[in-house]
Amino acid sequence: MGNIYNRLVEFLEICIANPELVITENGIKLFYGSDFPDDDIFSCLLKPCNLDSFTKDIIVKFCSDLKVKCFQLLNDFMPTGKYYAPNEEVLDICKSCPSNNISVERLMAKMDNCIVNAPTYNTNSMESVIMFKNNNTQEWLHNKTDVETTEITANARKQNNNFLSDIKCRKKKRFISSKS
After folding, report:
1. Which pick of 32, 46, 111, 129 has the fewest CB atoms within 10 Å?
2. Do the beta carbons of residue 78 and residue 10 sit within 8 Å?
3. Residue 160, domain extent
4. Is the pTM of this model over 0.90?
C-alpha cells in the first residue's frame, strides 16, 4: 500500500506544480497502466477549454489541502512511517488482523440499528453496549471474584466521567475550529 500512497502524493505534487494537467486530455494519470475507453461524458469534460487563472488556483488549493490531509491520514505508510517497510515482528503481529473490514461493517450495522430503534440514545452509550456484548465482558466479569468485580465496576464508572468530559472538550474544539 505504501507505493500507492506515495504515488498519490507524487500525483498531487505534480498537479500543484502544473494544474493544467488535471483537466486536459492525456494530461496525467493517477495510476500507471491501460486507460479506460473514452466515453461522451469523459470527452465533454476534457474537451479543450480556456483555462483561466481562477480554475488553476482552485486546483492548486484543492490538491495542496488534499496532500496535507494525505500526510495526516497516511503518515504511517509514507517512507518515514512504521508500516512503510515493516519488519518481521510487525508482519507477524499483522497476520492476526482480518484482511477485510467485515467486523467493522457489522458493528456499524448494529450502531445503525440502535439509532433507528432509539433515536435519542447517546452514541457513546450505544458504543459501550455494543462493545460490552461483542467483547463478552459479562462472561469475563463473571469469572472474577466479587471484590474484583466491584473494583472494576467502580473504576469504570470513575473513568467514564473523565471520558465524557474529554468527549465534550473534543466536540467543543471541533465546533470552534469548524466555525473559523
Report:
1. 32
2. no
3. 102-179
4. no
